[in-house]
Amino acid sequence: MDNTAEKTSPPLSYARLAAQSPWTTYLAQVDRVTPYLKNLARWVETLKHPKRAMIVDVPIEMDDGSVRHFEGFRVQHNLSRGPGKGGLRFHPQVTLEETMALAAWMTIKTAAMDLPFGGAKGGVRVDPFALSPTELEKLTRRYTSEISIIIGPQKDIPAPDVNTNAQVMAWMMDTYSMQVGFTASGVVTGKPLHLGGSLGRVKATGRGVFVTGRTAASRIGLDLNGARVAVQGFGNVGSSAAELFAVHGAKVVAIQDQWGTLIDEGGIDVRSLSQNMHPEKGIGGSHANNHAFWETPCDILILAALESQMTPARARITTAKLVLEGANGPTLPEADDILADRNILVVPDVICNAGGVTVSYFEWVQDFSSFFWSEDEINARLDTLMVESLRKIWACADHYKISLRTATYVIACGRILDARQVRGLYP
Ligand code: GLU
User: Fold this and answer.
1) Domain boundaries, position 289
2) Per residue in 325-349, pLDDT tens?
3) Closest CA to 256 of 221, 283, 279, 236
């Protein structure tokens, strides 16, 4: 009975951290902030230990009748300031360490924006493009059912991330709701509109990248009109941010995705590219240009792909004056130092891409009150919150003469550890 044989994905070691795993990057970022935490520094170990991590087996029956097992994770890094919040990604390289780092960055991000959430993240190690829609639905539902004991509107609220979308959120919301016996729309955000989703959520992360980028550009005297933009990653975040920069007069000169690179110094028509893109073949660029992407003359570089993309070697050759981290954890700590030495300003992920989780917060609030806001209202509130958060971070950076990243951590870790301290150790 070949077609029902169980296939098990190869086991992965969780014990050893790679020298530059995202979790190592995160720990280095926490070490940099510790000297500025004053009396709260005694609680800093809290940030180095995820509160809870769940590893689940996700078996599904494939279309050919075979049974395959996938490995899934949900990590709740910190819940001191509220329920866990953070996306779910489907990717062939997802690991526990990566999910820990992504959950930790959500803790920092929600605190930096002063949202009443902690930080969490989920992932399933799978190539979603190799699954049929039915298999993808089964995977999502079984994963949701496995983690349902730790998620909930007041406990931990997943959302879209790499390779997940509103349809995946709808399956998650339905699976959870069927288990608890009522429609629990607040259990996930990034849902379709008619299921309690929010206007503006799909483009919110890219919008936040643009809004923080525009603020940073004006602080360093960089005119957006005619500014050359290079974008790594042309998924939801990269494409929405690139479109907004183009609408405001910038010229998108290079785009790279996982399938290849497009370079056109005359400017790429991003709107038509994103409308005509093949979902499984990306922008249709060439591999030959992959290295040239990093050397293409540009003023603004948007990193909107995955972690650890800005390496020391790339930090040495980029011509950008401003780097915007649309992805989570795209810059290695050594690369951060090189960029700082070269006077290249980095708007860090934990504020730059916080637009997504901010509109997720708006969605969660709207679901609770069953009262929905207009898109203009959402965008206006998002812009105000992001600009105001960045202003406070900039004031902190100026005060201590530190990078925007370390300043964001000073503010965020102060809020998290203050909550930790006043709540106290119990039981
Ligand atoms: N996945 C997004 C992020 O990394 C959004 C998370 C959310 O909305 O909870 O920030």
Assistant:
1) 204-352
2) 999 999 999 999 999 999 999 999 9
3) 283
Q: Identify whether residues 323 and 344 lie together within a single domain.
A: yes
* pTM of the predicted model over 0.85: yes
Catalytic member of 85, 109, 121, 138: 121
DSSP 328-394: SS-B-HHHHHHHHHTT-EEE-HHHHTTHHHHHHHHHHHHHHHT----HHHHHHHHHHHHHHHHHHHH
60 CA → ligand 1 middle, Å? 26
> In the chain, how long is the greatest CA-to-CA distance?
69
* C-beta 108 within 6 A of ligand 1: no
The CB of 325 under 6 Å from ligand 1? The reply is no
Residue 136 lies in a domain: yes
Judge whether 112 lies within some domain: yes
Residue 209 counted as domain residue: yes
Closest CA to 344 of 294, 383, 292, 389: 294
Q: Which atom of ligand 1 is nearest to the CA of 357?
A: 8
Q: Are 409 and 348 in contact (CB under 8 A)?
A: no
Q: Is the pLDDT of residue 3 over 50?
A: no
User: Which of 321, 352, 383 is at the close of a domain?
Assistant: 352
Query: Mutation test of ligand 1: which of 205, 240, 363, 365 has the most ligand atoms closer than 8 Å to its C-beta?
Result: 205
Does ligand 1 lie within 6 Å of residue 328's CB atom? yes
| Partner residues linked to 345 by β-bridges | 322
The whole-number pLDDT of residue 317 equals 98
| Token pair listed for 267 | 């400017």
Task: Return the pLDDT at 7.
Answer: 35
Give me the pLDDT at residue 278, please.
Answer: 85
Mark out the alpha helices in 115-221 (DSSP H runs): 133-147, 166-180, 204-219
Residue 128 has pLDDT above 80, yes or no: yes
Structure confidence at residue 314 (pLDDT) = 97
Residues 4-33 have a mean pLDDT of 62
